[in-house]
Amino acid sequence: MSRFWNPLVAELSPYVPGEQPQSRDLVKLNTNEMPYGPSGRALAAMRDAADENLRLYPDPESQVLRAMWAQVQGLEPEQVFVGNGSDEVLAHCFKALFQPDQALLFPDISYSFYPVYARFFGLSFTPVPLDQQLRIHLADYRRDNGGIIFPNPNAPTGVLTPLAEIAELLTDNPDSVVVVDEAYIDFGGESACRLIPDFPNLLVVQTLSKSRALAGLRVGAAFGQEHLIEGLSRVKNSFNSYPLDRISQAGATAALQDTQWFEDCRARVIDCREQLQARLQGLGFEVLPSAANFLFVRHPDHRGSDLQAALRERDIIVRHFDKPRIQEFLRITVGSESDCEALTGALQAILG
Q1: Fold classified for 19-36+260-351
Q2: CATH 3.40.50.10490: does it fit domain 40-257?
Q3: Which of 154, 193, 238, 285 could be joined to 280 by an S-S link, Cβ 3.0–4.6 Å?
C-alpha cells in the first residue's frame, strides 16, 4: 500500500544493520559489540532506577549524565549533547549543522549511514575516495563544502587518522563544521575532544555502545563549543524533547564513573586484537592496521563472500560488504578469547 507514502519514502535506500540472530549458539563477530558484559555499577544503577519514579518524565536535558561526560572529557556540561545512540546524535548533526547549498564530504568507504542521512535530509554530498592503502587522506577534503564527516578510526577499515592531521584540516576549513565520529576511539586512538577549545567548527561524536558494552541501552553524545551544542538542542527539542529515559541516564552515568571496569575491558580487547591479527597473518591474511575493536582482512586466495559463507556453516558470523574495492574483505569483531580461538580454528579448517 505504498500509495499512502510520502513521495520521499519511495526514494529512500535505508541503512541495513548487521544481523542480530536469535540463536545463542553462534559465535557473533559481525556487529562490533563488546564481548564482555557491562559494568556492574551500571547494572546496579539501572536496577535502582526502575522504581516508582518511572511514572514521571525523565530530565529532558540529562543534566547529571552531561556533567559526568563533561568531566570525563575535560569539558563543561554546556559543551555536551546526548541522544539515543550516536546514530540519533548524527542525525541531528545532519539537520542542524550541515549546509544544503554545498556538498557534504565523507569517505567513499565509510559508515554507510552517512549517505542515507544525506538523502533523507535533502543534502547534496560527494564521497571522497580513500587512498590506495584504504586510508582517509584529509588533504583531499580541502575544498568548498557544506560540512565534513568521517569516522576515526574509520569504519569498516579500522584505520586511524592522526590527530595532527585533523587539526590541520580544521585550520584549513574554518567556514563549515567538521564532525569526527569516534565510535571506536577508545580502542586505540586519542580523542579529538582535546581540540575543541581551539576550533569552533569541530564536533566530536561518541557512543557507549562499544567500549562501555551498552549497545542495548542506546546512548550517544556530541562534544563541541556551545554554539554547536545549541544548534543540536534546537533540533532535538523540535523532534523529541525527552530523548533519554531515566534508566538510560542512570546506567550511562554509572558506566562513565566505573573507570576501572572500562580500562580493564578495553585492555583485554586490545590485547585480543593484537593476538588475533598475528594469527590471521599467520594464515596468510592481509590485515589492515586497526585501532578499533574489529579487524578488516582479506585472503589472497579466497573470495570474501566464500569465506563468510564457510564460516557461517561453522556457526561463526562475520560481516561482508559487497561493494567496490572492499568486496574481498571481511570485517571481524574482536570477540572474547574463546571466540577468537573458534574463529582461527575454523579458518584453519577452511583454508586446509
Answers
A1: Aspartate Aminotransferase, domain 1 (3.90.1150)
A2: no
A3: 285
